[in-house]
C-alpha cells in the first residue's frame, strides 16, 4: 500500500494512493486517486471508499516525525568522495522536525551557507513505539519506506564541529511523496537529478550497515515513536544546489520526490 498524507479544502488526512479504474498504470500521478483513510496508519484504520484524484490534493510530508535519526557515511564511496574514513559503526545524527518539508515544497537556501548539497536517501518510517528491537523483529516496527533528501550546508559542516546547523536548517529534510509499505529495501536503486541531469546513482545493497543493523543500534540507545524517520545514508555523487534548481530523488519501488531551491527572501 502507498500511504499519502494530504490536504484538501483545508482538511488534512491520510489515504491510500491507488490506480484509478481503467488507468494504464504509467507510474505518473496521472490517473492516480487517493482513497481517504478513516483513522491514521499507526493504529487501526479502514479505507472509506471515497476517492479523490491525486492532482486535486496537495501532498504533504507523509509523516510529521517526532525526530529524524540520520546516518552519516553509510556508503563507502560517499565517505571517500568527501575524503573521510569509512566508520566502523553507525554514525547517527539528528535533523529536527522543523527541517521536514513535503513534495513540491521549496528548499530555502540558508543565509549562512554558500555551498548547499543534495543527498538522495531511502527513508524508513517507524510504525510503532519500540525500544531495544532484536534483529528478528525489525520488520515488525517498520511501517514503510519513502524518499528523502538530506540537504546539507557542506561548508558549514566542514567548519563546525557538530552538524546541527549544517544538517538541521529549516527545509533541509524533504520527504515523500508517500510511504510504500510493501517493499523489500535490500537492493533498490536510488538516484538524484538536478534540472534533469543525473547526479547520484546507487543501490541500497551498497549500504555499509543494513536497515536491521541501524534499527538495532539506534534502539539500544533511544525509543523510536510511531512516525519517526530513519535516513539510511546517501550514495556517492553528492553535489551543489543553487537557487532556481529543481532536485528530484527517486527510490525504486517508492516514487519520486521533487523540490525547487529558492533564495531566502
From TrEMBL:
What is one process in the GO biological process aspect for this record? carboxylic acid metabolic process
Q: Where is the signal peptide?
A: none
Does the keyword field hold Metal-binding?
yes
* Key word Cell inner membrane present: no
Q: Which Gene3D superfamilies match?
A: FAH, Fumarylacetoacetase-like, C-terminal domain
**From the UniProt record, which GO molecular function terms apply?**
acetylpyruvate hydrolase activity; isomerase activity; metal ion binding
Segments forming domain Fumarylacetoacetase-like C-terminal: 67-262
The UniProt keyword set, sorted, is: Metal-binding
The protein's name in its UniProt record = 2-keto-4-pentenoate hydratase/2-oxohepta-3-ene-1,7-dioic acid hydratase (Catechol pathway)
Question: Where is each Rv2993c-like N-terminal domain found?
Answer: 1-62
Write down the Pfam families for this protein, in alphabetical order: FAA_hydrolase, Rv2993c-like_N
Amino acid at each position: 500500500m502507498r500511504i499519502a498524507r494530504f490536504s484538501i479544502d483545508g482538511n488534512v488526512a491520510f489515504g491510500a494512493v491507488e490506480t484509478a479504474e481503467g488507468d494504464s498504470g504509467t507510474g505518473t500521478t496521472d490517473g492516480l486517486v487517493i482513497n481517504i483513510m478513516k483513522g491514521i496508519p499507526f493504529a487501526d484504520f479502514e479505507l472509506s471508499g471515497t476517492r479523490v484524484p491525486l492532482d486535486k490534493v496537495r501532498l504533504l510530508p507523509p509523516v510529521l516525525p517526532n525526530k529524524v535519526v540520520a546516518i552519516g557515511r553509510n556508503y563507502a564511496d560517499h565517505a571517500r568522495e568527501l575524503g573521510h574514513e569509512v566508520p566502523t559503526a553507525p554514525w547517527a545524527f539528528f535533523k529536527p522536525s522543523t527541517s521536514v518539508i513535503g513534495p513540491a515544497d521549496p528548499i530555502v537556501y540558508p543565509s549562512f551557507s554558500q555551498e548547499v548539497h543534495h543527498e538522495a536517501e531511502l527513508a524508513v518510517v517507524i510504525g510503532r513505539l519500540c525500544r531495544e528491537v532484536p534483529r528478528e523483529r525489525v520488520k515488525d516496527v517498520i511501517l514503510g519506506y519513502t524518499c528523502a533528501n538530506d540537504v546539507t550546508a557542506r561548508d558549514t559542516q566542514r567548519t563546525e564541529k557538530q552538524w546541527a546547523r549544517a544538517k538541521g536548517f529549516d527545509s533541509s529534510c524533504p520527504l515523500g511523496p508517500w510511504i510504500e509499505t510493501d517493499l523489500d529495501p535490500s537492493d533498490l536503486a536510488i538516484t538524484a537529478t538536478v534540472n534533469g541531469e543525473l547526479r547520484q546513482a546507487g543501490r541500497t545493497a551498497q549500504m555499509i550497515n543494513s536497515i536491521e543493523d541501524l534499527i538495532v543500534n539506534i534502539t539500544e540507545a533511544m525509543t523510536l515513536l510511531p512516525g519517526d524517520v530513519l535516513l539510511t545514508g546517501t550514495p556517492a555523487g553528492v553535489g551543489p544546489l543553487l537557487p532556481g534548481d529543481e532536485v528530484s530523488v527517486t527510490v525504486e519501488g517508492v516514487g519520486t520526490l521533487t523540490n525547487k531551491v529558492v533564495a531566502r527572501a
